[in-house]
Design brief:
- There is one protein chain.
- By secondary structure, the chain is mainly alpha-helical.
- It folds into 3 domains: 1-56, Ubiquitin-like (UB roll) (Roll); 58-138, no CATH class; 153-414, Receptor-associated Protein, CATH 1.20.81.
- Helices cover 78% and strands 6% of the residues.
- It contains 17 helices and 3 strands.
- A hairpin with a 4-residue loop joins β1 and β2 (15-22).
- α3 packs antiparallel against α6 (108-122) and α14 crosses α15.
- The longest helix is centred in the middle third of the chain and has 58 residues, at 155-212.
């Protein structure tokens, strides 16, 4: 890994500098782009320069982002945001509010992160800059909204809006996970039952049937072949499945694979509508919250582009931002790409003309989320019975394959 000292411009126009570790110059530029930074200069630094640059950063802040990011849950960040908004509304200064939340925090990882942020603020850093040292916990959207709140002198209101956005996303995610839990359980239990029968129970029964009958029925022979295949080559099957899973994960992490996967999700017959509605709802709610918090439209579109979670839609949003930069209204380029429903475009157009774009975007988000929830419930109501039928058909085939030799034996005896 090589360390690079950079000077960059944020989406809000602020100048920042620092040190970033990457394999090469291109990887460093990609990392800065993911953080929403536009580098003005990027130079490799020697070990001494790296140590000096790192020494300028608070030690606790450095450790919090990458070391503890995987151990701090999203719900804990949401709860911190809501509590921080309440303390700021009560007139408590930021360092004291962070100290109080740190002392009451049960998660030691988050407690140390909050302590590091409080120490950075005491040393003169802004709250947003201190949060920016933990990109795994506070993404570009979070930091940008906090920075806007600081510059506008409305940090408490912005934190309240941000907490509402995070809580709403957590609620939607929880509803989706709850809806898919039952079908996943049915599928996993059915697969476990079939594998257990093929590898443990059936081999013993087939040994008895082979000794009692010269010719077995075709369904029994098919089941016997499947059972022997699982029993003799289970390691190769497991290795092939693991290889396919890891190969797919590696491909999906490449730019081409991620783009193909995101495009395929949107083109699915039934699930595509759910993914599309979910992404459009996230776009509308995030953009509406940013606009209401005081972020201008172009930087807000750039932030949404980096947080939408779908590369295909991110490219479309980039085209919308370019057209908007050229003087078009937001509704015009959205109408060109043909992603939003016509009613949503009309609502956005009315919001722009009436000076209430943020309200209309949030209403569009509500509409898309209702459609997403309705489509999800319909899909789950179809998937669950379908999985039960599939598992029942497999178990029924196994039962028939076992009973046929017994019936044949009873007929020969009679």
């Amino acid at each position: 890994m090589t360390s690079f000292r950079y000077k960059a411009i944020e989406t809000g126009g602020n100048h920042v500098d620092g040190v970033i570790d990457a394999e090469n110059r291109k990887a460093a530029l990609d990392l800065l782009g993911e953080r929403g930074l536009y580098p003005a200069s990027l130079e490799a630094c020697v070990d001494g320069e790296k140590a000096a640059a790192v020494a300028e950063m608070p030690s606790q802040s450095r450790s919090g982002g990458s070391l503890f990011g995987s151990r701090i849950r999203r719900k804990e960040i949401t709860a911190f945001t809501r509590e921080m908004a309440a303390l700021l509304e009560a007139g408590i200064p930021i360092p004291q509010a962070l100290d109080g939340l740190s002392e009451e925090e049960e998660n030691p990882a988050l407690r140390e992160v909050l302590g590091g942020i409080a120490e950075s603020v005491r040393k003169g850093d802004s709250f947003s800059s201190a949060l920016e040292e933990h990109p795994h916990l506070f993404n570009n959207l979070y930091v940008s909204m906090v920075r806007v709140g600081e510059e506008a002198g409305a940090l408490q209101r912005v934190m309240t809006d941000l907490a509402g956005l995070l809580e709403h996303e957590d609620e939607v995610r929880s509803e989706v996970l709850t809806a898919v839990a039952y079908p996943v359980f049915v599928l996993a239990f059915g697969a476990f039952t079939v594998v257990l029968l093929l590898t443990v129970v059936l081999p013993r029964l087939f040994g008895m049937l082979d000794e009692m009958m010269d010719v077995l029925p075709l369904p029994t022979l098919v089941l016997l072949g499947m059972s022997k295949t699982f029993q003799d080559y289970w390691f190769l099957i497991l290795l092939a499945v693991a290889g396919a899973v890891f190969g797919l994960r590696y491909y999906l992490r490449t730019p081409e694979g991620a783009m193909a996967w995101d495009g395929w999700k949107l083109r699915l017959p039934v699930m595509g509508g759910v993914f599309r509605a979910s992404a459009l709802a996230r776009f509308s709610r995030t953009l509406g919250t940013l606009v209401r918090s005081g972020v201008s439209l172009l930087p807000a579109l750039k932030i949404v582009e980096n947080t939408i979670g779908n590369l295909v839609l991110a490219n479309w949003i980039s085209r919308v931002a370019e057209d908007t930069r050229g003087g078009d209204s937001l509704a015009t380029p959205l109408r060109k790409i043909g992603v939003f429903p016509k009613t949503s475009i009309q609502m956005i157009n009315v919001g722009e003309e009436g000076g209430c774009l943020d309200e209309m975007l949030l209403k569009v988000a509500d509409i898309e989320e209702r459609q997403m929830r309705s489509k999800t419930k319909t899909l789950i109501s179809l998937i669950a019975p379908a999985l039960i039928l599939v598992v029942g058909a497999l178990v029924g085939f196994i039962v028939i394959a076992l009973l046929l030799p017994i019936f044949k034996m009873s007929q020969s005896i009679s």
